[in-house]
Every structure is written in C-alpha cells, then in structure tokens.
Amino acid sequence: MAAQTLRIGTRDSQLAVWQATLVQNLLKEAGIASELVYIKSEGDIDTITPLYDLGVTGVFTKTLDAALLNKRIDIAVHSMKDVPTKLAEGIQQAAVLKRASHKDILVYKNEQDLEAIGFVNGEWNEGEIVKRETSNVKGCDQHSPFTIGTSSVRRIAQWLHRYPTNKVENLRGNVNTRLRKLEESNWQGAIFAAAGLERINLRPEHSINLDWMLPAPSQGAIMVVCREGDHQAFDACQPFNDEATALCTKIEKDFLRVLMGGCTTPISGLAVKKGETIQFNGNICAPDGSDLVSIEIIKEVKDSANVGEEAGKTLLLDARTQHIIETVRNGKQ
C-alpha cells in the first residue's frame, strides 16, 4: 500500500511558501510525496494594527494549528520566531531546519544618512554613538531626525535604547509589502530579518547588518510541527531535523518563556554553538528604550540544556527587569 501524501500547511505569503516548498523538497528527497495547502492567518489578514496591539501570541500560527488539529493538514511549516513558547495542546515539534542568518538588517534609502547612526566607512563607529548619546537632547535634535519603520517591539526598544531621539513608524505586512511601503515613505530606513529577505532573493544592496542588535529568540530558524501521535508525519521530518539548531532555539525559547515574553515584551536571545560550548546572550528592554538588562552565559554543550531557563531566572532577580515587565503588563510606555 502506497504511503499517504503529506499535506503541508502554509501561509500564502511569498516567504511562507518558500519555506514550505523547502520542506516539500526535503521530503521529496526522502521519497515522500506531499502537497501544499494554503491557509491565511489572522496576522496576514490584519496588516494595519501593530502586532503589539493585537494582544495575542501565535497570531501567525494559530490558524495553521487549528487546521492541523482538524486534520485538514498533516504538518505545518512556521518561521520559528512566530511560534509561541508553548505549543498548542495536541501538537508536537517534528523538526527544526538548519538555521539561516539570525541577524536583523537595516534597509536604508540614502548612504549619507548612515553617518547619523554611526555607520561610517562600512563599520559601526561606537565612539561616535557614545559621543552623540551622552550629549544633551537639544544637541542631538540639531541633527536631522532619523525615522525607521518596524512593528516589532523588540526592534523598536533596542533601536530607541541606542538612538533615543529617533522616531519609529509602524510597518506591517509581508516582506514585499513592507519594502514597498518603505520606498513610498519619507523614512530613512526600515528593519527586516536578514533570513526573510535573503531566502526569496529580495535583500536590497542598500542594506546593512545590525550587528549590535540581538535577534528575536529562534530568528532565522524554520520549525515543522505535526499532530501528537502522528508517527508517519513525525518520522518523515526527522531526517532534516538539525540538532544544533534545535538545541540553540530551545535555549532561546526557554529564556523567552521564563521571562513571560510574548508579542508585547521586548525580549531578545541568541544561543550559538561554538565547538563544544554554547554561548548565550539575552536581554530585556523597556518598550521606550529607556533601560536594557542583559546577560551572557557560556557552558559546555553537554551542560547547556537549561541555559535559557537559568538566564531568564537570573534576569528576573534584577529589579530593573521586574520594572520593565510591570511597565509592559500595565500598558505603560
């Protein structure tokens, strides 16, 4: 009896379809037939409201989760940073693909504007940043205001922490829509995930890596999920599960979970495997950028399973962290 054709659930954006097609090709290499099933998420339908105002986690995943539980599809493919720290009941992780770039990038319009944010001769000039940010506000405001577009509270918070006099405008939609909105705006630039643009060959030449910005937990990784107990779907995905990426993203998600982070909390985390060690860097930032609490932990891989939880619990002991969490919880900016 021939094996059943696996139905792959995906959002219908260009990037989501690219990711689902990648999984389809990996299945094909293993001799497994599959088909794509397109499903529109709430996050795709409402592209106006800032993500932090939608007030829910899993805004891009819950429609696919429902289709999975209703057996309309057999597996779902997600950008892992969109996946809540706790999967819906009845759903399990089937695979995490090898991670692409974890970095955020700034797509800018004019190269001369970059000096205003300390990017000079192809490098981030930290000295200029320190000199500018420690000057008085009146002095800073004598420069032309730098305005960027993003709807990510994490990106907003880290940007304003570094550039407190800059302005941030809401930017929603798939990557194609956001690039178009940037082009039509009077902003100096907008922030994107490098992986999202690079995967579909849309990264503009006029873009730079934000090496100083810590990414969202599991940014750049793709997760495949299936129903609990569906051994056929789970086993089909195991050959392309990347253990190093799965470990690092688990650490990052644990950090996010312990800090009770969701769409409204500016939390960043990155775990990197270097030889036999894991280096983890994480932070939580005030929504307005006024404060940032960070942590770094380096451990041997064999002792690293609980690094994210340990880092989160350590930050929770800091009164500044508690103040940031209370600020978010009370809806203060």
From TrEMBL:
Its keywords, alphabetically, are: Porphyrin biosynthesis, Transferase
Q: Which cofactor does it need?
A: dipyrromethane
Q: Which residues are in the Porphobilinogen deaminase N-terminal domain?
A: 6-233
**What's the short name of a Pfam family annotated to this entry?**
Porphobil_deam
In what pathway does it function? Answer: Porphyrin-containing compound metabolism; protoporphyrin-IX biosynthesis; coproporphyrinogen-III from 5-aminolevulinate: step 2/4
Record bears the keyword Transferase: yes
InterPro entries from the UniProt entry: HemC, Porphobilin_deaminase_cofac_BS, Porphobilin_deaminase_N, Porphobilinogen_deaminase_C, Porphobilinogen_deaminase_C_sf
| General function of this protein | Tetrapolymerization of the monopyrrole PBG into the hydroxymethylbilane pre-uroporphyrinogen in several discrete steps.
Quaternary structure note = Monomer.
- Which family does the record assign? Belongs to the HMBS family.
Q: What is this protein called?
A: Porphobilinogen deaminase
The protein's organism comes out as: Flavisolibacter tropicus
